[in-house]
Amino acid sequence: MSHQNPVFIPGPTNIPDRLRQAMNIQTIDHRAPNFVELLEPLLGDLKKVFKTASGQVITFPASGTGGWEAAITNTLSPGDRVLAARFGMFSQRWIDLCQRHNLDVEVIECEWGEGAPADLYGERLAADTSHEIKAVLVTHNETATGVRSDVGAVRRAIDAASHPAMLCVDCVSSLASMDFRMDEWGVDLAVSGSQKGFMLATGMAIVGVSQKAQDATKTATCPRTFFDFRDMAAANEKGGFPYTPPLQIMFGLRASLDMLFEEGLDSVFARHARIAEGVRKAVDAWGLRLCAKRRELYSDTVSAIHVPEGFDSNNLTNHIFDTYGVSFGVGLGQMAGRAFRIGHLGSLTDVMALSGIATVEMAMADLGYPVEIGSGTRAAQEYYRATARAAVRSAA
Questions:
Q1: How far is it, in rounded angstroms, from Cα 220 to Cα 369?
Q2: Could you tell me if 257 and 277 lie in one domain?
Q3: Confidence class for position 392, pLDDT limits 50, 70, 90
Q4: Residue 365 phi/psi, 5° resolution?
Q5: Which residues lie below 8 Å from residue 307, measured CB to CB, with a gap of 6+?
């Protein structure tokens, strides 16, 4: 019966019944004239989530990693220099992807648990007087450490250096869960996917593309075929796809956007912030600490939590799964064995979060952790109780 339990991993996330039903459709003809009735409003409404009026949204049948590759190959050429900070597993994977495409990656090494260092970006860009750096890469929400970076601050650093580099942002685990402001922050490429805040199955990469990034496709020489922005944009403009689209996910995405807009994006963000704070109250009550170094870095979609010295976080997550049939995120990279992760994004409520918190407590008690059973659950309950009425008013 474990399939009835919610997952507490930072993606793929729980799929609401409404969205599963929306994806349960018979095959239709994607070359029929009425396909545009699905496609056109879908792309237009995605722009509202990215908060862009001037940009374009391009989708591909892929995961977020496919979106990374599309963003890089469509706007850069082999040998181009890019600037990136490494402060977690997913920022590292984006760096690795760039290196495999023969880009010259200048890496700013950061302690895991810190965010994107806007000041160091600014220093490197100011020193690059010949403008060799073509793009700046930022992971908005580092899923491995539960860190949210200040993208706006990075944009201000780029502008202060009067540098023309594109700003490329991984917002896979933040878009549709936390506020993202593509136009306001001057983001040129914003990469996301269907399986996190949109609460769907994996299978669609969703990329916000500024006019500057669209212009860069004219000179970029990285090889691309399946992920070619030009092919996709040209087909979309005529109401179609250059190849077979992921129809079931597209219908699910239509329903997902309807759900997000019915709740209201601000209310969606507030719900995530409230649930996340309840989880953090529980962590404090356990006497444990987050990987994120400071409150301003705390993610509202995932909390990475250090286990006490002498304990193995993999044993904890395995025990939770084997004994209670619930999945939590394992530690990745430098956090392997040292931290576990509670995903609290997408289709989630405070009541669901409490079940996850209580399950972690039972497992820690089973394994002899120095944690008082019920302490975290009680702390989260008190916070959710105190904020429940305000949350209901906000959603009304």
A1: 54
A2: no
A3: low
A4: -65, -40
A5: 288, 313, 316, 338, 339, 340, 369
The total domain count for the chain is 2
What φ, ψ does residue 306 adopt, rounded to 5°? -70, 135
What's the rounded Cα separation, in Å, for the pair 354 and 3? Answer: 18
Domain boundary among 221, 246, 261: 261
Closest CA to 348 of 287, 281, 263: 263
Question: What mean pLDDT is predicted for residues 170-174?
Answer: 98
373 is written with which tokens?
Answer: 């059973």
Residues in the chain: 396
Cα–Cα distance measured from residue 284 to residue 167, given in angstroms and rounded to the nearest whole number: 36
Q: How confident is the model at residue 386 (pLDDT cuts 50, 70, 90)?
A: very high
As a 3-state breakdown, the chain gives helix, strand, coil percent values, each rounded to 5, of 45, 15, 40
Query: 85 forms bridges with which residues in the sheet?
Result: 108
43 Cα distance to chain centroid: 19
For residue 349, which of 263, 257, 254 has the smallest C-alpha distance? Answer: 263
26 vs 22, 120, 200, 248, 374, CA distance in Å?
11, 52, 18, 8, 47
pLDDT at res. 4: 86
Last residue of a domain, one of 223, 240, 261: 261
**Three-class SS state of 274:** helix
* Closest CA relative to residue 11, chosen from 154, 148, 175: 175
Query: Using one digit for the tens of pLDDT, what is the confidence trace for 273-295?
Result: 999 999 999 999 999 999 999 99
